[in-house]
Amino acid sequence: MRVMPAGVWRPTARLIAGNRLFAIALVPALLLRVDAELGYRWQAWFNDSFSYVDAAVTLTPNTARPSGYPLFLWLLSPFHSYLLVTASQHLMGLLVAVMIYALAKRRLGAPSWVAVLATLPVLYDGFEIQLEHLIMADTLFLFLVMAALTVVLWPQRPSWRAWLTAGVLLGLATLVRSNGLSLVPVFGVYLLVRCWPRWRDRLGCTRLVAGIAALAVACAVPVFGYEAWYKSAHGQFAMTESTGVFLYSRVMTFADCSRMSLPTDLLALCTTTPPDQRPIAQAYIWTQVSPLYRFGSPVFTPTTNKLAEEFAIKAIEAQPGDYARAVWDDTAASFDWNRSVFPNGQTYDDYLFGYHSVTVPPSPYRGYPSVEAYYARGNPATVVVNPFARVIRLWQRYVWLPGTVYGLILLVGLFGVAARWRRAGREALLPWLCSVALIVGPAATAEFDYRYVTTAVPFACLAAALAFARRTEGAAGAGPGRVAASAIGSVRSVDGLSGTGISSTGISSTGISGTGGEPGGTPGLPRRVPGRRLSGGLAKAGDDQRDLPPDAT
């Protein structure tokens, strides 16, 4: 008796046979994620997670960060299952690896071992797997941006429909993390680079104008729709009331009011503490040390946000060198070999598979002890089950990508852009710029955070893989007369068609501090010391800062 029809298993077998090395790499990565689900049932919590779930349950846009991820949680809420949420996020992580492999090998002809090597960080990095298991926006954000990039890079000459699709995906990514908006100019630069050699002829100019218009309009539609929803709830046509607040926290690590010309209403935002004795940037949002609280609590209000933004702009104008140095220091932290205990022990531990569940704060809602319990219609605490928990905890302790290696990957990608421009250098430019933007953006507008680096790594890996691409423009690939038959399948010839997208099996249409450059904060932040190092020193991935009981067997 046949378990599967021949029309299904035979193409599947051919697909696996044609991509044997990637299939071998994919299976253990899937098993690690299954182990994470069985060991930490069925989710892990971060300090931002609770505001996301609250926004999903109440359907009220958050004033501190965009609520695209809560909308994703709301779509899944009829199932009352955190397992469904985290399983879908683990699936997104695997699909990101599929997209990287498909673009590198099937689209641009990189060697199989190179294409598979580029997927290993997203498949096996312990912090990537843990990030997928958190009730956090980062994995959804990564998936949406990688999908947008795939839509643009898969066809040899993207049509306006491809740019339209990419614009929608970027718009949705912006609703998940606000720094998604900074990627729109990155895609625009790539479009300009692709069309520039032909802009003087009529067809090239038309493609350029149509692509830019499609990208901009498609991105604006979900953003404006979200802002209309925000206005209905808070009376302001905006995405958040936090952009000025976070930028204020960025400049308060160096701002010297004696060097600034300030109007009277901004003087209350000054501090007399010397810069070298100030705490890290997050303290100027989440703790009472911040002068923002002189205007009342909470700080995410239109008035406070506006004053904070004005102050931050004046600080940058008066001290551009100090601002550049602060951005440089935070960006450089992405390339440290070791992970520091940052911003404090509690937050650092939330990025680890720990020994027990993070405490869910009580917030009674409709007869349940918390909105998290209401969402699941049950106990929202993570159940830690050995030996599965012990396996993934040990894996995360020893298998992760050091920041220095990430820096080397970026350098390889940059070499590919410069030295192999006529082969795949132009295509490598887009993921390379995305990776850089995802670490510089938060450093410029808020503060460094390790999860932003984890999100940026897959794009750098793709750019580096394209440095080894063997296919030149005009060679076999998706282009005029060709479309992608499968995301990881063979490319077929189809007469009379223009490759404008990816296959029906390539990308799902649904797709995570998730704070978009807005790191969450907790009290008790460490004090800042010269060189941006923390007095807490370095920590290994497996170190836990809490006094925890032994594993329950």
In short:
With 553 residues, this protein is mainly alpha-helical.
Detailed description of the structure:
- This protein is mainly alpha-helical.
- It has 21 helices and six strands.
- The protein has helices spanning 6-18, 20-39, 49-58, 68-76, 82-107, 112-124, 126-133, 138-153, 160-176, 183-195, 202-234, 243-251, 283-286, 302-318, 320-332, 345-350, 371-376, 388-398, 403-419, 421-445, 450-466; strands at residues 40-41, 339-340, 383-384, 480-484, 491-498, 538-539.
- The chain has a two-stranded antiparallel sheet with strand order 1-3.
- Helix content is 55%, strand content 4%.
- A hairpin with a 6-residue loop joins strand 4 and strand 5.
Secondary-structure blueprint of this entry?
Layout: H1 6-18, H2 20-39, E1 40-41, H3 49-58, H4 68-76, H5 82-107, H6 112-124, H7 126-133, H8 138-153, H9 160-176, H10 183-195, H11 202-234, H12 243-251, H13 283-286, H14 302-318, H15 320-332, E2 339-340, H16 345-350, H17 371-376, E3 383-384, H18 388-398, H19 403-419, H20 421-445, H21 450-466, E4 480-484, E5 491-498, E6 538-539
Antiparallel strand pairs: 1-3, 2-6, 4-5
